[in-house]
């Protein structure tokens, strides 16, 4: 399977100028492609082909005085920008036909130099290399210093250079992993687990709210990164609002706000990676609920739902389960896991979120609401261990890595 390995870059002043030039040229070519297709649509003509766009917007444009500066960057960067435009239109038309999974996507829009994210992509045709000293050598940019946090398992097929809203530069390498090698790193186990994702009310700023409860009774508290950083974010945002638009001080204040938000996002992502890797390494089968995060984000729990980052966490479980040969099962979001007794199976009716413990009227068992729900998630998924330790469930296959997004919203979103 294909994976991305991202590393921080530290370009010098000259390299930042060259990267800014590359970002700008790629953006102009993308916008020219969108404009050409829109002009053809309004005139009732067939859309120009990829070859026609490449010849007109890149090859011939370099020979004109208005676009001669396109020759200052690698031609691969410009060609990849055209491919991005083609992919955007392909996804748009597939979304209109209903053949594309995930939420609906709109028509491609023009890019702006003020966009929070700028990127360019180099394929193997660009002849970029990693030098013996560990630097990333990019055509017409130079050897950029890389902060290697780990080694690449295989040779990368392409690299994307990204500049985020906080002004940080990253190199994102695409690699093809070996399934046999990956699965050998995670030996088989006979453990299976059910996970109940939810929020506990009432919530307090001090934390202590579980983001997930496992079927073995383990409760994983949410670090609540956004809630803890709210005071700092509020102060930075207030300073930004007081700056005059268009001034250099406003630009500095905007970067300060972006850095504060990036710090929160990085901490949350690191927490999700550590937790998902731990669950994947310890369990052969994992069961979760297919919650409607988009639906919950429209309720009064919106801030807490976004702070928990359920979609990103489930996405990590999906691709790691596929990579390491584990089984991930999603059960329906309308399964009454919080209403059913995990001991006798009697449905005891809906309960408000304030009820955290309840006693079964049939068998008298006292249940913790979240632990009982996690056990029911595991039972509903049908995860069981065979004699050889492999998970047994008719029809279960290793989870495929798909695009995140809501596949339909429930009438009444569930929080726990």
Which descriptors apply to this entry?
14 strands; alpha+beta; disordered C terminus
Total strands: 14
Contiguous runs where pLDDT drops below 50 for at least 5 residues: 202-207, 385-416
Share in β-strands: 15-25%
Number of helices in the DSSP assignment = 11
Instruction: Supply Rg.
Output: 25 Å
Biggest sheet strand order reads: 2-6-7-1-5-4-3
Output mean pLDDT: 87
As a percent range, the share of helical residues equals: 25-40%
- For the termini, the CA-CA separation is 33 Å
Order of helices and strands: EHHHEEEEEEHEEEHHHEHHHEEEH
Shape: elongated
The main β sheet shows up as:
7 strands, antiparallel
Structural class: alpha+beta
Task: Map the helices and strands.
Blueprint (H helix, E strand, L loop, with lengths): L1 E9 L2 H31 L6 H10 L15 H23 L20 E6 L5 E2 L5 E3 L3 E6 L10 E6 L5 E8 L2 H7 L6 E6 L12 E5 L4 E3 L3 H4 L1 H12 L6 H35 L2 E5 L3 H4 L5 H7 L1 H14 L3 E5 L25 E3 L6 E3 H13 L35
Parallel strand pairs: 8-11, 11-12
Antiparallel strand pairs: 1-5, 1-7, 2-6, 3-4, 4-5, 6-7, 8-9, 9-10, 13-14
């Amino acid at each position: 399977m294909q994976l991305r390995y991202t590393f921080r870059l530290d370009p010098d002043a000259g390299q930042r100028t060259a990267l800014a030039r590359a970002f700008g040229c790629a953006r102009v070519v993308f916008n020219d492609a969108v404009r050409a297709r829109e002009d053809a649509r309004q005139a009732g003509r067939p859309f120009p082909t990829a070859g026609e766009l490449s010849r007109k917007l890149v090859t011939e444009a370099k020979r004109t005085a208005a676009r001669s500066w396109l020759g200052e960057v690698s031609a691969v960067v410009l060609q990849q920008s055209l491919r991005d435009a083609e992919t955007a239109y392909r996804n748009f038309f597939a979304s209109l036909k209903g053949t594309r999974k995930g939420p609906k996507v709109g028509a491609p829009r023009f890019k702006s130099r003020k966009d929070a994210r700028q990127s360019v992509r180099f394929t193997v045709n660009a002849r970029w290399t990693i030098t013996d000293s560990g630097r990333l050598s990019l055509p017409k940019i130079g050897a950029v210093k890389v902060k290697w946090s780990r080694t690449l398992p295989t040779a990368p097929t392409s690299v994307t250079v990204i500049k985020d809203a906080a002004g940080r530069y990253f190199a994102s390498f695409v690699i093809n992993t070996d399934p046999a090698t990956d699965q050998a790193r995670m030996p088989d186990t006979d453990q299976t687990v059910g996970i109940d994702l939810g929020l506990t009310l009432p919530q307090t700023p001090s934390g202590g709210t579980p983001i997930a409860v496992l079927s073995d009774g383990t409760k994983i508290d949410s670090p609540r990164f956004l809630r803890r950083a709210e005071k700092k974010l509020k102060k930075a945002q207030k300073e930004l609002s007081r700056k005059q638009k268009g001034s250099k001080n406003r630009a500095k204040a905007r970067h300060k706000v972006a850095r504060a938000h990036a710090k929160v996002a990085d901490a949350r992502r690191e927490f999700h990676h550590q937790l998902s890797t731990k669950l994947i390494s310890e369990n052969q089968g994992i069961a979760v609920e297919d919650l409607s995060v988009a639906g919950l984000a429209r309720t009064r729990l919106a801030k807490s739902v976004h702070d928990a980052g359920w979609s990103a966490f489930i996405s990590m479980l999906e691709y790691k389960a596929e990579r390491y040969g584990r089984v991930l099962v999603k059960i329906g979001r309308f399964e009454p896991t919080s209403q059913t007794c995990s001991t006798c199976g009697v449905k005891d009716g809906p309960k408000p979120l304030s009820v955290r413990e309840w006693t079964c009227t049939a068998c008298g068992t006292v249940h913790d609401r979240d632990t009982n729900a996690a056990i029911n998630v595991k039972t509903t998924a049908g995860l069981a261990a065979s004699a050889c330790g492999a998970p047994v469930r008719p029809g279960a296959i290793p989870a495929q890595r798909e695009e995140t997004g809501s596949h339909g919203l429930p009438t009444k979103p569930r929080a726990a």
